[in-house]
Each structure stands twice: as structure tokens, then as C-alpha cells.
Recover the amino acids of this structure.
């Protein structure tokens, strides 16, 4: 790989992570608009599911 493209894998991972955070925030905010406590519950559940998946090596 040329020196000018060494940063490309880092940008790909950062973009994927940013998209994931934006998705979780959007789902949580949408739930919050319907019923405010649901936003925190849904957001916490998604984060917990991600932590469990990472602990199992699924992500």
C-alpha cells in the first residue's frame, strides 16, 4: 500500500463506528419521543447487547 493510503483502514473503522453510534442515538431518540423513559431503556438495552456481543467475540 502506498504511504498516502495508510490511513484508509482507520477511516473505514471510524466511519463504521460513527454510523453505529448515530443509529443507536436515532433509535433511542425516536423511542424517547414516543415515551420519555423508553428512550433510556432502549438505549441502555442496545448498549448492553453490544457489550455482550463484544464479550462473546461476535463483533
Amino acid at each position: 500500500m502506498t504511504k498516502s493510503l495508510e490511513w484508509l483502514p482507520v477511516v473505514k473503522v471510524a466511519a463504521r463506528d460513527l454510523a453505529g453510534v448515530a443509529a443507536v442515538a436515532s433509535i433511542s431518540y425516536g423511542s424517547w419521543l414516543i415515551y420519555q423513559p423508553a428512550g433510556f431503556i432502549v438505549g441502555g438495552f442496545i448498549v448492553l447487547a453490544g457489550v455482550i456481543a463484544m464479550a462473546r467475540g461476535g463483533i
User: Anything to note?
Assistant: The helical segments are 8-34, 36-56. The two ends are 26 Å apart (CA to CA). The mean pLDDT is 88.
